[in-house]
Write a structure and sequence with these properties.
With about 70 residues, the chain is α+β, with helices and mostly antiparallel strands. About 40% of the residues lie in helices and about 15% in strands.
Length: about 70
Amino acid sequence: LMAPSAPTPASPVPLRADLLTVKEVAVILDVHAQTVRRLIAERKLKAVRVGRLVKVRRVALAEYYRNNES
């Protein structure tokens, strides 16, 4: 018989793969980073703090994009 293996993590992808920097979001939206910061401050784009950094979840960016398509 084989010994039971250690439990595997629920997600093999690092959690930070889901998070984008303000600069990355700016490139995706084709706007200035300050515009992204303004959208976050106005609560039009959801963001999370990771220590001192501000990150945007890919899901939140997709939601913002869906809600603001022209």
